[in-house]
């Protein structure tokens, strides 16, 4: 069974996908998976519409958004198999910690915050945390047009007080003297990354997709409990741009947060947390239901 899988983009929190491939789990179950890189985050979906790929990975946000937009049946997406069940983003700062300045989200109200521009989910979810703290995200002075690489430099040189980053930028920031002040995963379940496909592709490839979900479940215990150095040995070829010691630190940090749920069923609590963030952030107008956006595989 041949499957063309489009990457949303290549980042550390997607490690379980690469681990399942590198450890031969897809192949062992009879699925010949080939990866196609996306030119930009989200553009993989267009490749699927064109028939060039069978499945993508990414956030259920896209399935929810298309349902809210009342996309035609052939354009609607269905999510299956949760791989990342918590938010992988952090807030970092170069402001030294003292007994008098222990971080709280209210500190953002009087500071400059650089938020993620590449994809919408991180800032939508952080805004919901801010609202849950009784604060108004619209009152924050944000920088929303820079890349995470640029925001890393900005938080280090003091151009911004706080930056919203994922790994490896977090570990690189800490290496250079910054500190983590907020872990978005601490809010609990947020359905963050799944497989996504169209109904017609699922109908054609259902057996292969079932095996791919099994492969992901098969690496769950290993990805969460193996030594980071052992995991890096398997997945390092997918991350040639990240030094080995940094990659080990990234993986250890994500393991500690319990980020990688790697389960066939997408968390309903996580789905509704994401949907609420989208609705309150004015990203959607309606409240699409779980069964409209998720399919059991």
TrEMBL record:
<comment type="similarity">
    <text>Belongs to the bacterial solute-binding protein SsuA/TauA family.</text>
</comment>
<protein>
    <recommendedName>
        <fullName>SsuA/THI5-like domain-containing protein</fullName>
    </recommendedName>
</protein>
<dbReference type="GO" id="GO:0042597">
    <property type="term" value="C:periplasmic space"/>
</dbReference>
<keyword id="KW-0732">Signal</keyword>
<feature type="domain" description="SsuA/THI5-like">
    <location>
        <begin position="15"/>
        <end position="222"/>
    </location>
</feature>
<dbReference type="InterPro" id="IPR015168">
    <property type="entry name" value="SsuA/THI5"/>
</dbReference>
<dbReference type="Pfam" id="PF09084">
    <property type="entry name" value="NMT1"/>
</dbReference>
């Amino acid at each position: 069974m041949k499957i063309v899988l489009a990457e949303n983009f290549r980042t550390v929190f997607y490690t379980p996908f690469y681990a399942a491939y590198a450890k031969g789990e897809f192949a062992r179950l009879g699925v010949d998976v080939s990866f196609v890189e996306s030119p930009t985050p989200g553009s993989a979906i267009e490749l699927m519409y064109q028939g060039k790929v069978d499945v993508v990975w990414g956030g259920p946000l896209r399935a929810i958004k298309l349902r809210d937009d009342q996309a035609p049946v052939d354009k609607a997406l269905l999510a299956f198999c949760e791989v990342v069940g918590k938010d992988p983003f952090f807030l970092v700062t170069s402001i030294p910690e003292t007994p008098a300045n222990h971080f709280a989200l209210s500190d953002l109200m009087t500071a400059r915050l650089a938020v993620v521009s590449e994809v919408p989910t991180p800032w939508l979810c952080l805004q919901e945390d801010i609202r849950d703290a009784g604060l108004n995200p619209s009152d924050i002075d944000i920088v929303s047009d820079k890349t995470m690489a640029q925001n890393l430099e900005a938080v280090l040189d003091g151009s911004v007080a706080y930056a919203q980053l994922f790994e490896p930028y977090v570990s690189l920031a800490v290496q250079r003297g910054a500190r983590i002040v907020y872990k978005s995963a601490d809010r609990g379940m947020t359905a963050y990354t799944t497989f996504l496909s169209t109904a017609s592709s699922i109908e054609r490839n259902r057996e292969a997709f079932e095996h791919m979900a099994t492969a992901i479940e098969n690496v769950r215990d290993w990805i969460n409990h193996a030594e980071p150095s052992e995991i890096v040995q398997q997945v390092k070829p997918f991350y040639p741009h990240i030094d080995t010691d940094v990659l080990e630190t990234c993986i250890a940090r994500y393991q500690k947060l319990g980020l990688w749920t790697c389960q066939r069923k997408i968390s309903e609590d996580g789905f509704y947390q994401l949907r609420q963030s989208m609705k309150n952030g004015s990203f959607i107008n309606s409240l699409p239901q779980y069964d409209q956006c998720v399919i059991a595989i």
